[in-house]
Write a structure and sequence with these properties.
Elements lengths: L4 E11 L6 E6 L2 E6 L8 E5 L3 E3 L9 H4 E3 L5 E4 L3 E3 L2 E3 L2 E3 L21 E2 L6 H4 L2 E4 L10 E2 L10 E8 L3 E8 L2 E5 L3 E3 L6 H5 L1 H10 L5 E8 L14 E9 L4 E2 L2 H10 L11 E7 L5 H8 L12 E6 L2 E6 L1 H6 L3
Parallel strand pairs: 13-23
Antiparallel strand pairs: 1-2, 1-4, 2-3, 4-10, 5-7, 5-11, 6-7, 8-9, 12-17, 14-21, 14-22, 15-16, 15-18, 16-17, 18-19, 19-20, 22-23
């Protein structure tokens, strides 16, 4: 799971042309804007990642005008998003380590200690459905790490690259004779008229026909009407597969095993899956910035800027979100 707030180290500081009171600081792979002189290279800080929702309290009140939001569950806070100051991209927030966290070490997560939540956009009423329960504990939830938090020097090798779609995650499972359909955090009661159940009908049918015992969860993205502004201009919601989880062995299938299994049950056609963009080799010349450049391209499904890419191999995966895409987001 992502560390929304953690203790980090400032590794670089650079001036911003035309700016007298602010400067660019770098925290791992993240570049953000800070008040000039607030940090020196090597200082510890609390880094809050974009898509964090900071609690309403005095120390974050300076964010109210730019960042105050309400979540679907009614909770309020300050949502961090991509911003630009004097043309400099700023992703996240860095603040001095408060006295009560002075004992923490670099790398320690402080998300819960600081009351930080992950921002979840309001869900359209047509997509809420009747909740059956929380997300099943026998399936891993989808939430790849961002490349800015990775040490690229440890990622050398060949990776599968797929497009990261601008939708909402969905999981379909078949376990112990039971079929289930889930959103990001919850499982839905059976309702063939609900958008999640309708969009996954073909996948569910193929899973049930495959075997009386098919202990797998197929995970993907639902795109279409009422989902993130329908970026791909679809008439009906569609389910695009990006992962298969082996429930028995509690692990994701490798890209090759995933393809083999999907082909075996009749879901091997590209129409059922997120766009495959090819294989990419990460080597000594690869940097966070070069991977971010790789994400900057038109979607394979439409003419809009794609959200980003996901790289997978074995049990490992991470995402590279397009900065151009984030710049265009309203929330």
């Amino acid at each position: 799971m992502r560390k929304l707030a953690s203790i980090r180290t400032v590794c670089d500081i650079q001036p911003i042309p035309g700016a007298d009171n602010i400067e660019m600081i770098q925290v791992d792979g993240w570049k953000l804007v800070s008040r000039k002189g607030e940090f020196s290279v090597g200082d510890r800080c609390v880094y809050y990642e974009i898509d964090s929702l900071l609690p309403v309290c005095e120390k974050y009140e300076f964010l109210r005008n730019s960042s105050f939001k309400k979540m679907f569950d009614g909770s309020e806070g300050f949502k961090l998003k991509n911003m630009r100051f004097k043309g400099q991209l700023s992703q996240g927030l860095a603040l001095s380590v408060p006295p009560e966290l002075s004992h923490m070490s670099v790398g320690d997560e402080v998300t819960e200690l600081l009351g930080v939540k992950k921002w979840e956009a309001p869900i359209p009423s047509c997509m809420t459905g009747v909740t059956k329960g929380s997300f099943p504990d026998f399936i891993s939830m989808t939430d790849e790490e961002r490349v800015q938090n990775m040490d690229v020097s440890k990622l050398h090798g060949e990776w599968e690259v797929t497009e990261k779609l601008d939708g909402t995650s969905c999981t379909v499972y078949w376990n112990e004779g039971q079929i289930g359909v889930c959103g990001r955090n919850i499982e839905f009661e059976c309702n063939e008229d609900h958008v999640f159940w309708k969009a996954t009908r073909t996948v569910r049918n193929r899973m049930q026909l495959a075997s009386t015992n098919f202990p797998y969860a197929i995970q993907g993205e639902i795109i279409g009407p009422n989902v993130q502004g329908n970026s791909y201009k679809l008439k009906d919601a569609e389910f695009k597969i990006f992962n298969v989880y082996d429930i028995t062995n509690q692990k994701y299938l490798s890209p090759w095993d995933r393809v083999e299994l999907l082909e075996a049950i009749g879901l091997g056609e590209s129409i059922h899956q997120v766009p495959f963009l090819g294989m990419f080799i990460i080597d000594e010349s690869t940097t966070v910035d070069s991977l971010l450049e790789l994400a900057e391209c038109r979607s394979a499904l439409f003419t809009n800027q794609r959200e980003g890419i996901v790289l997978k191999r074995g049990q490992g995966s991470f995402k590279v979100v397009s900065n151009k895409f984030l710049d265009k987001q309203k929330d």
